[in-house]
Design goal:
Number of helices: 13
GO molecular function: 4 iron, 4 sulfur cluster binding; ATP binding; metal ion binding; phosphorelay sensor kinase activity; protein dimerization activity
CATH architecture of the largest domain: 2-Layer Sandwich
Radius of gyration: 42 Å
Largest sheet: 5 strands, antiparallel
Protein name: Oxygen sensor histidine kinase NreB
Subcellular location: Cytoplasm
Distance between the termini: 71 Å
Order of helices and strands: HHEEHHHEEEHHHHEHEEHHEEH
GO cellular component, one term: cytoplasm
EC number: 2.7.13.3
Strand content: 15-25%
Number of domains: 4
Helix content: 55-70%
Oligomer: single chain
């Protein structure tokens, strides 16, 4: 509100007070019957008219104050709302735009025409052809399209429009714009997670099928061959033939052991039949015997089994982590600890080997299975963290939440068990 306007208000207040004082004097004079002169009567009428005019102006000024306060509130909302807002005239020229619209479109000043922002966007010809531009729709409308950023990139947005007449009865269009970039990225991430989870599930199902086929099908057939060789060996008197049969028996037995090892690597039956802890203990014993690395295992928590999807993820992460230790750590000891709490399970794998630079590893895209471990944890809403220093070993820490039964069921459907 200007200083001149404030001075005018002050002047009217003074005049109103003066008029009320004069009216009071005239009332007193009337009460003493001292007003007989016509001039005084005119002065009285003038004073009364002046007072009513002053009161009227007082209400006008007060209403003007209320309107200005309301306008200031609307301006603040216009400037601080998170959605972009543009006001267009009947020729689709931008009359006004708020700061949010300027920010995500990269414009310091308002563009001349709204059409310049969307004319190059995907599908713009289809939107605008035959005069079917969404701006021409008189009803409240909602669309998704792309607007052109100042740097030339395309921004996915949703827009809603409404129409009204200004004080001069000229049509104006209000466009509310919401940036969908984060929403699209989140949607893409969700789709990627679903696809990845489906691939992991299919992989686990195929591993389970192959493991059973090797163990129950081919494994049993080779075992029958081994029994047959051992049965006929005592019946053969020719030493040369017996020697050939012995070599054949050893080869068959070795093949059977390798087949069983492959079946366990693909999908240990203990994981499905006995649970995660039993499967891990069996794997760690085989791992220690094979690589000569001591594995110290410690578990804390109740003995109830975890959801199948969680058990599968933790087993595969442990398996990958120990494999990396054998390949790269150059150490003779590794600690594996697991802690089951009320709302989460925590897995830690710590080696005391030569370590490495995690940043260099990620920078050169040599994941050493890190991506797979991260994905398995992420699919279950968990976190994966790896810390390592040259000469000081490596630690992997995984946190997986223990969700409600219905949520676990959904995850198992996605990831498999």
């Amino acid at each position: 509100m200007s200083n001149q306007f404030q001075k005018q208000k002050w002047l009217f207040k003074v005049l109103l007070s003066t008029g009320i004082s004069l009216l009071f004097v005239f009332v007193v004079m009337i009460s003493f019957r001292t007003i007989d002169n016509g001039i005084y009567r005119y002065l009285l009428l003038f004073t009364i008219s002046f007072i009513f005019s002053s009161i009227l102006f007082h209400f006008i000024f007060r209403k003007d104050d209320e309107l200005k306060a309301e306008r200031e509130r609307l301006i603040k909302v216009f400037e601080h709302v998170s959605d972009g807002i543009m006001i267009l005239d009947e020729n689709k020229n931008v009359v006004e735009m708020n700061q949010a619209a300027k920010d995500f479109l990269g414009h310091d000043i308002k563009p001349e025409s709204f059409c310049h922002l969307c004319e190059d966007s995907h599908g713009s010809l289809k939107i605008c052809e035959y005069d079917k531009c969404f701006l021409n729709q008189q009803r409240l409308s909602y669309y998704e399209l792309q607007l052109k950023h100042e740097n030339g990139s395309k921004i996915p947005v949703s827009v809603s429009t409404s129409h009204y007449l200004d004080v001069d009865q000229k049509p104006l269009t209000i466009i509310s714009i919401r940036n969908l970039s984060d929403h699209r990225r989140g949607e893409q991430s969700r789709i990627t997670n679903i696809v990845t989870a489906s691939m992991i599930r299919a992989q686990e199902e195929e591993r389970k099928r192959l493991s059973r086929e090797l163990h129950d099908g081919i494994g049993q057939s080779i075992f029958s061959v081994l029994l047959g060789i051992e049965y006929v060996m005592p019946l053969i008197e020719n030493e040369s033939i017996r020697e050939h049969l012995e070599n054949l028996r050893k080869t068959t037995k070795q093949t059977l052991e390798e087949l069983r090892h492959m079946a366990v690597e693909l999908r240990p039956s203990a994981l499905d039949d006995l649970g995660l802890i039993a499967a891990l203990k069996s794997y760690m014993k085989t791992f220690g015997d094979t690589f000569g690395i001591q594995v110290n295992f410690e578990y804390s928590g109740d003995k109830d089994r975890l959801p199948a999807s969680v058990e599968t993820a933790l087993y595969r992460i442990s398996q990958e982590a120990l494999t990396n230790v054998a390949k790269y750590a150059d150490c003779d000891r590794v600690d594996l600890t697991m802690c089951k709490k009320m709302n989460e399970v925590i897995l830690k794998v710590t080696d005391y080997g030569k370590g490495f630079s995690v940043d260099d590893l990620r920078r050169h895209d040599k994941g050493v299975g890190l991506y797979g471990m991260e994905e398995r944890a992420s699919m279950l809403g968990g976190t994966f963290r790896i810390t390592s220093q040259l000469g000081k070993g490596t630690e992997i820490e995984v946190h997986i939440p223990l969700q409600k039964e219905e949520e676990n069921g959904q995850n198992q459907n996605l990831i498999g068990g």
